[in-house]
From TrEMBL:
Signal peptide per UniProt: none
Protein name, as recorded: MmcQ/YjbR family DNA-binding protein
This protein's record includes keyword Transcription: no
Transmembrane segments: none
Organism: Sphingomonas populi
Keyword flag Phosphoprotein: no
InterPro entries xrefs: YjbR-like_sf, YjbR/MT2646/Rv2570-like
GO molecular function: DNA binding
Keywords of the record: DNA-binding
Top-rank taxon: Bacteria
Length: 125
């Protein structure tokens, strides 16, 4: 099982909530991050399906991008249960050499995919 999830959760939470109009809400017992009054753009799961994984789950542009990410780095990305069928991708957060800039970039891209036009026109993230 992954080590203490509080450290990666704090990092994911801090980055997500710094994005415009982002909120946190529990979703199926795990932290989820959404745009106020709108769509979810990220989830944090720790041992969610008794799999021992600590992951952040984000939107992609669709199945083609999801497949490309997974094929290019299967040790980091995978299609999560439920959301994977909609093109979302999970990022494993328990590696000792985790590239947090890559995690932050994927979260930001996911936010942009969920953001309403008015936020994007106002300058986005």
């Amino acid at each position: 099982m992954s080590p203490d999830p509080e450290v990666p959760l704090a990092r994911v939470r801090s980055y997500c909530l710094a994005l415009p109009e982002a909120e946190e809400r529990l979703s199926h017992g795990s932290p989820g991050f959404l745009i106020s009054g709108g769509k979810f753009f990220a989830y944090f799961w720790h041992n969610h399906h008794n799999d021992g994984e600590t992951v952040a789950i984000v939107r992609t542009t669709g199945h083609d991008e999801q497949q490309m990410l997974i094929e290019n780095d299967p040790a980091f990305y995978y299609a999560p249960p439920y959301l994977g069928t909609f093109g979302w991708v999970a990022m494993r957060l328990d590696g000792a050499d985790l590239d947090w800039d890559r995690v932050d970039d994927r979260i930001a891209a996911s936010w942009e995919l969920a953001a309403p036009e008015r936020l994007l026109e106002a300058g986005g993230r």
